[in-house]
Predict the 3D structure of the following.
Amino acid sequence: MDLLKTFLLFALTALAEIVGCYLPYLWLKQDKPVWLLVPAAGSLALFAWLLSLHPTAAGRVYAAYGGVYIGVAMVWLMLVDKVKPSTTDWIGVAVSLVGMAIIMLGRRTPG
């Protein structure tokens, strides 16, 4: 259950980061209104706060989070950008999620 909770928290964190970066992209590259920077800043603040909710060392959280971020980014690519990820994209997601599980479930050394 802890792994599922961690995974869902990582997925929510990734969504907050992607939204926080996507909105400025829209302003910079697609001539959308500058006010999009306001919710972008809020989303990035939410992202930072969500990362702080994990009870383990920050470096380990950041490393493991990266694996989930890759998967969420591929789903974003499909749903928002309307681009179909390739088979190798999904293989990369699987490898990154295995890496995340190894980091989060691996044996810990004291100190």
